[in-house]
Amino acid sequence: MPLNQQHCTSPRELFSVLAAGAILLLVVHGLGRFIYTPLLPYLVADGQIDAAGGAAVATWNYLGYLMGAMVAIRWHRIDQIRVLLPVFMAVHILTSLAQTQLDTVTLISVSRWINGVANGVVFVQAPALILEWLVSRNRAAKSGLVYLGVGVGLLVSSALVTLAADWLSGADRWWPAAVLSIPLAWWGTARLLALDVPVRAEQPEQPTSKPGKLLDRASLPLFLAYAGAGLGYILPMTFLPLLAKLQLPEGHWLIDGSWLIVALVTLPSAWIWNNLGAKIGDHLAIIANFVIQLLGVLAAVLLPGATGIVLCGVLIGSTFLGAVLLTQRIGRALHPHQGPRLSAALVALYGFAQMAGPWLAKQWLGMGGTLESAFWIGVAALAWGLLFVFLVPKPEVWHRQSR
User: Fold this and answer.
1) Where are the transmembrane segments (predicted)?
2) How far apart, in Å, are the Cα atoms of 283 and each of 85, 325, 333?
């Protein structure tokens, strides 16, 4: 591709492609996955589900996400993405519509599991397709803007739940997200399938080539830290509004407002951590990130009530995307020739850790524990992660020592 190809890409075209990717992430992540968080206290109040059942449903959804990510990693070529992307967007729409008709925990769990699979596939494949298109036009640095869809999705999900709170109940509460998903999914998918992305033939591996170790003294602490981040953040991202409902008087603005706070602070977070890492170094930035996340979950358990809920929402919402961004960058810096393998392994690990969080909470609640005390699982996970972050070597030091 000629270097001047980037001049053939107009700002309008660039915006529409990035917007299409962001909209698909908004649909599958905001309207598909995380809308469950602000919905949960209402579903509990409606008698459709209880806290333990809510944790079980979340676990199945996160298991689906993990499986979907693995599907996307296995079938990663451009020609495969062009087939799977529209298929799994259709799966998302169908399961979202099915959710409006289901009333038992078992059926809800099955639907949320399948929806999670669709989420995992689209969340990996849509940005991958856009990245290939951007690379062919020397615009790869713009690829991170796609993830703005996650932050906007949190905001939209909060608004939909709040606006419909008084006139919908039970399974009907899923209708706004299901209906809005249809036109957004159609436009975003059609725009990405129209991209002119070259399909490169797979090159046979050389028999003498060795991929090298994925786990070594440098990357193992990073993997262990990332597992702590996934487990630590997912509890408040799943149960914060329900915690607000349990701790605050009925009708308190934070029952809905806690998720709105998370959504608002998430919007600029990727940009902030990207620039902070560039300014002070990714290694120091990720240490700060874990400290802030740990303080956020601690606030929820040490300061029960409005103060703790607000602090938890602000500190977790402003950091979790930064942890993803910084971990991926540090991993690639430690193993620059294993980018795809490393990214795939990190996606799978994060997905597994997220699945484990609600499952552990369900076990704790089943033994008679409270939701408030279940947040200590997140505290322990982030403390674990922070410990191992300190053990991750700086990439430049590691490469100098490895020579």
Assistant:
1) 12-31, 51-71, 83-101, 113-134, 146-168, 174-197, 218-239, 251-272, 284-302, 308-330, 342-361, 373-393
2) 35, 12, 11
Q: Where are the domains of the chain?
A: 7-196, 215-403
Can you count the helices (H) and strands (E) in the chain?
16, 0
Instruction: Kindly list the distances between the CA atom of residue 217 and the CA atoms of 2, 56, 211, 273, 345, in Å, as whole numbers in the listed order.
Output: 40, 36, 17, 26, 16
How far apart CA 212 and CA 302 sit, in angstroms, is: 45
pLDDT digits 0-9 by tens, 24-67: 999 999 999 889 989 999 999 999 999 889 988 998 998 998 89
Tokens coding 399: 């490469």
CA distance 297 to 299: 5
Tokens at residue 206, please?
Answer: 């050389």
Digit-coded pLDDT (tens) for 147-161 = 889 889 988 998 999
CA-to-CA distance for 94 and 91, rounded, in angstroms?
5
CA distance 119 to 122: 5
pTM reported for the whole predicted model:
0.79
Q: How far is CA 75 from the centre of its chain?
A: 20
User: What's CA 55's distance to the chain center, in Å?
Assistant: 17
**CA dist., res. 46 & res. 33, Å (int):** 20
Fold observed for domain 7-196: Growth Hormone; Chain: A; (1.20.1250)
